[in-house]
Amino acid sequence: MSTTLYAILAVLSGIMIADTRAKRVLAAYVAIAVVTTVVTFPGASATLGGLVLFGIATALKVVLAPIGIVWFLRRNPEAEDLRAGAPLPIRVLTVIALIVLSRAVERLPVASVLPLQSTVAFVILCGIAMLLMHRNVLADLLGLLVFGAGITLEGALAAPQLPEAVELGAAFDVLVTTFIGLALLRTLHQRGMLDVDRLRSLRG
User: Fold this and answer.
1) Assign residue 195 a region: left if phi > 0, alpha if psi is -120 to 50, beta otherwise?
2) Residue-wise over 48-76: b if at least 16 C-beta within 10 A, else e?
């Protein structure tokens, strides 16, 4: 099961990092969110409060956040190009490097007491790589969403006795990241500053 799960997430993460079309990357994020949500469901459904918050967090991650991003893309079609910050071979090598690094996590003593730690590490590293591999700020938003999915998965595995706290954190994380992020993206787009390089130039 863990090998199959890891392989699925590796393919999806590879699409997120290697592709430059926002809608395809968004579809890969939604699939990652669905997979991690399925993994966290048994723990979240242990209590009524956890189940309710799980439903809210899932709706935000899998439905509302993607709808918000699609709405932004329809209003701003030029944002569809995520503007890769590295050539394709480098992006593919990055995915391979993440696989090697996340597999190495299994050898750490602290990781031996919890399941799926290489999978968690891979999802989190994918989110970080998204922040580094593209120059469009929308890619950063998607990277933060994937990063949050990895943190939520780790929380569910590390603290299964606290499903309400984990799911509340997940819901708040997605809510803040998506809707504040989209408001920021809209402002940046109006000023022609969706390119990360242009934002960096403001530092002088």
Assistant:
1) beta
2) eebbebbebbbebbbebbbebbeebbeeb
According to DSSP, residue 112 is labeled G
Residue 171: give the domain boundaries. Answer: 2-198
The answer to whether residue 204 is domain-embedded is: no
178 within domain boundaries: yes
Burial class (CB in 10 A: 0-12, 13-18, 19+), 165: middle
Number of domain units in the chain: 1
Total residue length of the chain: 204
Q: Tell me the pLDDT tens digit for each residue of 69-127.
A: 898 888 888 888 888 888 989 999 999 999 898 888 877 776 667 788 888 888 999 99
Report helix, strand or coil for 195.
Answer: strand
